[in-house]
Amino acid sequence: MTTPATHGATAAGPADSPTGGPARGPAGASLLVRAATGRPGPYPPVWFMRQAGRSLPEYRALREGSSMLDACRTPDLITEITLQPVRRHGVDAAIFFSDIVVPLVATGVGVDIVPGVGPVVDEPIRDRAAVERLRPLTPDDVPYITEAVRTLTRELGSTPLIGFAGAPFTLASYLVEGGPSRDHARTKALMHDDPSLWHALLERIGGIARTYLAVQIDAGASAVQLFDSWAGALSLADYTEFVLPHSRAVLEPLAGSVPRIHFGVGTGELLVAMRGAGADVVGVDWRVSLDEAARRLGPGAIVQGNLDPALLSASWPVVERAVRRVVAQGRAADGHIFNLGHGVPPDTDPEVLTRIVELVHSLA
Amino acid sequence: MTTPATHGATAAGPADSPTGGPARGPAGASLLVRAATGRPGPYPPVWFMRQAGRSLPEYRALREGSSMLDACRTPDLITEITLQPVRRHGVDAAIFFSDIVVPLVATGVGVDIVPGVGPVVDEPIRDRAAVERLRPLTPDDVPYITEAVRTLTRELGSTPLIGFAGAPFTLASYLVEGGPSRDHARTKALMHDDPSLWHALLERIGGIARTYLAVQIDAGASAVQLFDSWAGALSLADYTEFVLPHSRAVLEPLAGSVPRIHFGVGTGELLVAMRGAGADVVGVDWRVSLDEAARRLGPGAIVQGNLDPALLSASWPVVERAVRRVVAQGRAADGHIFNLGHGVPPDTDPEVLTRIVELVHSLA
Hints:
Two copies of one chain form a homodimer. Chain A has helices at 24-28, 31-36, 57-63, 68-71, 75-89, 102-106, 128-133, 143-156, 168-177, 185-193, 195-218, 236-251, 271-276, 290-297, 316-330, 350-362; strands spanning 94-95, 111-114, 118-121, 161-166, 223-227, 260-263, 281-283, 302-307, 335-340. Chain A is α/β, with parallel strands linked by helices. Chain A has one domain (24-362): TIM Barrel (Alpha-Beta Barrel), CATH 3.20.20.210. A seven-stranded parallel sheet of chain A has the order 1-4-5-6-7-8-9. In chain A, strand 7 (281-283), helix 14 and strand 8 form a beta-alpha-beta unit. In chain A, helix 9 crosses helix 10 (185-193) and helix 10 (185-193) packs across helix 11. The A-B interface holds A 183-189, 192-193, 232-238, 266, 268-269, 286-289, 308-315, 318, 322, 345 and B 183-189, 192-193, 232-238, 266, 268-269, 286-289, 308-315, 318, 322, 345.
């Protein structure tokens, strides 16, 4: 892959910015984009899933009095929250502050994010009529996203911004179950009982996710990550038949624009399939070592991960040893972006994250 | 492995029954024991994890007014609850009705089972003094277990009874965290921060689990299953260093007594290591197909599993297709015990389970 070009990323048609945002140039030479395109620098770039969030006191202060959904639709809040961990930790990338349900809400789906619970859907989607009420997302539905990304890419300068969306399966699980689910039983029953309805649902959700990412790319994001948080609940056979085509429909049209990272938890069995869905970079949780992940993925593998977030509460020597091991194992791949194997736990001491960034940067 | 012999199974010394319980003979020729020892019958034996439990109306009726812990210490209730699914579904094995914390409680650890939550520990165990307060289990601590197993093996006749215990890691996670945990962060921090304390803790818990299984074997159980429900949260490296030796210390002394089944959820990366811990039969969740599990385990692999329990709420044709696929894939192993990939969900229609048993029995 060559230096990213932005135009044409919007699913709805060519982008209105002819040659990419003002920040695309410097961020295109960033360690993150280099690692993601198989041209690694002296050390792996570092960022943390959920780096913008509850582990930071400045985040908790800023969020006081605003709901999650309101924060995700307010450009000033999005911008400030996205920048906080970059300033504090010196990470090598910003991750766009949003929630996977934001684009659904923008198309009129009734969803609230309930603190301590997660997304709760007013009317679960389980029949044809409900699926047909889902309408496509257009860039005009999310002007606050375009505005926030533009501001961010300007403010971030040479630090790349990673755009963000939830993958079709994970979004579908929330919509079908009506909220978070441990076993995804209704979702799995629906996919098997009525494959035609299932595929219609995922096509619509996939279109929404694709546009949501395209809007962020058009406004200047240097990379995107598609989160399929729950994909690890599926067997490879179910993933391949019911999910992969829809994740591919999100990621493939973005080929040649910016690097595409694809991540799920507990997806050791799915890594090759997830790469096949159009991932330039495959996110790996802590259960599979990065050298083993690289072996499974084969030549040209580029991986992201995979420090066990549970270790962030251990003593520093334990963390240091684990970080060094992750970096060493990542050398087996053709590119490595250092990250956790899942999101930052809310009770993490942010000092530890800062020290990890410094440590990885010292491992040239 | 030859026909099981019971004597000597009790970790504390030779068993008091010289030649095995009265039911050992006929149950020793059961399909379950045959499959578990590499001498498969015409079709795979079937049982379901959590078959004795909330999916059965007769269970809910019987449990009314008694706490989970009380039920697990009352021989009449244990016996009746264990027999209910055998009568109703015609499964090929009974699983001893108990809870993994029962042997801990029997040694004086303060634990309650809170409905809707799970085990909650009065004083989490996180330091040397707390570890040293854990004392060994003796058969005299659990007379109700011996009594219930004896009654059951008599009542069950040729249907084998599977004994039951929680594995050291899963028990340790409850004790260290103080209750159920999603990320096991304190547990993982402890194992890495203070390996000596960790190993001391797991040695004691392992001794308790070993004795708990031995008591059941001495009283007549035809097989045992060691549940390491949470092991799938660990990387292979952590499992191998911090858990495997302790699971092995539970299972190895039982070699040559009865078949030992070892199961955890999300353990695709750990199957070979779990076999190495002394499992005659490796339980597999639905994420890894049984033919792939057999391939990973290599020659002589005997597997248990692995219908996705989420599919139990799908329509019958979907269930039937999935059951047939599991049976077909299980033929790749040298022995296969049909089961779900995890426990029966509480809202399962029990009729579906009965039909599954009939279907598997028809697939000779």
